User: What shape does this take?
Amino acid sequence: MAEPVDWRADGIPRSARFDDIYHTETGAPAQARHVFLAGCGLPGAWAGQPQWRILETGFGFGLNFLTTWQAWQADPQRPRLLHFVSIEAFPVSREDLLRAASSYPALLGLAEKLAAQWHGLLPGFHRLCLDEGRVLLTLCIGDVQAMLRAQRFEADTIFLDGFSPQRNPDMWSADTLKAVSRFARRGTHVATWTIARAVCDALAQNGFQVTKAPGLPPKRDCLQGVFEPAWQVRRRGPAPSPAALAGRCVVIGAGLAGGAVAASLARRGWEVEVLEAAARPAAGASGLPVGMLAPHVSPDDALLSRLTRAGIRATWQQLEQLLEEGLDWRASGVLERRSAGDDRLPDGWTAEGPNESWLAPSMHVAEAGLPPGTVALWHARGGWVRPSRLIEAWLALPGIRVRAGCRAARIKRIDGEVTRWAVRDAAGALLAEADRVVIAGGIESHALAPDLPLQAVRGQVEWGRIPPGSRLPITPINGDGHLIAHVPTAEGNLWLAGATFDRDSIDITPRSADTDFNRERLARLHPDAAAQLAGAFVRNETQAWAGVRCASGDRRPLVGPLSAESADGVWLCTALGSRGLSFAVLCAELLAAHWHHEPLPLPAKLAQALDARRAWPDTEKPQILASAR
Ligand code: SAM
Assistant: This one.
C-alpha cells in the first residue's frame, strides 16, 4: 500500500504519519536549488566530470531529484552519467507523485517519465533508468539505516532530507549520520535545511566541516558541510582497487551477456570491441527464436526471486528503450501454471501491489485456455522477447565494434607503465589488446576460465507456425515447461514450447526423444494447445532448436574478477543459465558499478550472491564471500 498523503488546501502535501509537511511553502524546487544544489556547489562541482553520484535521505515526491535532473539536463558541462541514490521507507503512490509535480510545470515532463517507472516498489533496491540510461535513480525502499547498510559507493554529494528532527528523529540520529558519513570521500559536500544542534554536532563528529548559510525564506538558515576529517579515513575490508577510467575493453562473446556488458560499458564512455567465435552474434544459447521473461516467485521471497525481479526491471527498461513492443518483444504478462494447491505467495501479495505477481483470477485462467480449477500466478511484468533483436540493438550502439569469427583462446597480461591485456587465438595470433577484458562467452568461457566449475546445460525447444484458426493462448504460459504463441515474424506468427535441461551435453543436434519429451510436457502444461499442435507434430511441420547454456555450481550468474592476479583487468560475466533475459542487464550494470565505484544496483548481500569469486578454487577464495548465500 502506498503512503497516504494529506493534501492541504494550499496544495502543500502533508504526512499524517509524521505530522509535518513534505516541503516548505516557498516550493520544493526553490528549496532544492537553494539549499541542496547550491549548498553542495552544484551544478558547478560536477562540470566536466565523467559521472556524479548523489546520495539523498528521504525521496518523498522526488522533487529534489527532479530539480537535480533538470539542472543536469540544462548544463552543457554535465557529467556523462548522473547517479542519484535515495532512501525512502514509505513511498507515495504514482498519482500523488504526479500531483506534487503538477504544481511545477517545468518539472512535469520529467515527473511523467519518473512516474512511468514508479511501479513494483517492494522493500529493496530499484534501479530506474532515465534519459536513455544517463540518469540512474536507485531507490532504496526501506528504513534509512538498513538501506545505508545495504548500499555501497563513494558519494560526491549528500542531500540530507527528512521531516523535522523532532518528528522524524530516526532520519537525523547520530547513528544515521554516522552511516551517511561512510559514503563520503574527502571533499564530499553535504547540505540540509535544518541547523538543529544535534545534526550539526553529529556531522562534525563524523568528519564534516559544517557552516550555517542563509536559508530560503521563511527559513533563516540552512546547513552546508564538506567532508574533511582531521584523521586518516579507514574503511572496513580490503582497500578497493582504484575506479577504472573508461578506456578500451574487449568483450568475449556476443550473446546476451556480452551484448549487455558492451552496452553498459559503451554508455560509460568505453570503446568496446566484441569478439565472437561464431560467424555472427547471438549464435549460441541466446539465439533461440523467442524467450520467456518471467520472474521467479517463492513464498519466502528467496534470493533467486529478489534477483530475478531486479533483473527483469533492468531488462524491461532496455526493451522499452531499444526495441519495438509487439514486434521484438511483448509486454503481455505471463501466466505461471502451478501444481494443484500451490497458491503460496509472500505475505500480503495481492493484486493491489506493490508486488507485480499475484494469484490469477479463475476467469483469467479460463481465458488462457487452461483447465478449470488450475492454480496460476499472474506476472504483470512478464512477456516474450526475441533475444537476437535485443543483442543486435545493443551491438549497434555507438562505441561498440563487433568482430565475428574470432575465437579467443588465451588472455595474457602485458606489463608496462599501464597494464594492458592481449587476447590471442589458439594459434597465438593477436586478436585484440585492451585495458580490460570481459569473458562473457557462455559455456565457451570454459576455455578461458578452466579453473571455474562451469556446467553445460543443453536445452531443446520445439517451434512452428501458428496453424490457421488456432486458439493458442495470447498470454505466454510458464510452469513445468513453457509455451509462447503469436510471435510475429516475416514468415508468419510462430509458437514455441520447451525447454529441456540436459546436464553436461554440448551436442546441439536436435533429438527426437527431446521433441517427444517437450510434447508430453506441453500436454501437461496446456492440454488444449497440445491438442491443437498435435497435427503439426505428426505432419513434421514443427522444428527443433537446441543450444547449450552455461551454469555455475549454485545456478547463479558469475560477475567478478577471473582470478586474484587478474582482478584489475580480466572479469567474468557469465553463467546466466537459462535466465539470460532476466540477468544479462543486471549483471552488466553490476560489473560497471564495481569498475567505477558506482552505487550498487542491488543490496550488497544480493550483489555478493553474484560475485564470481565464490566460484574460485578454495585456496584463492576471499573470506568475505563465505557469508554469501
Ligand atoms: N526529498 C523529498 C523531495 O524532494 O520530495 C522530500 C523528503 S520528505 C521531507 C522526507 C521523507 O523521508 C518522507 O518521504 C518520509 O517518508 C521519509 N522517511 C522518514 N523517515 C524515514 C526512515 N526512517 N527511513 C526512510 N525514509 C524515511
Residues 22, 28, 58-64, 87-90, 143-144, 161-163, 168, 170-171 surround S-adenosylmethionine (CB under 6 Å). The two ends are 30 Å apart (CA to CA). Residues 61 and 100 are 7 Å apart (CA to CA).
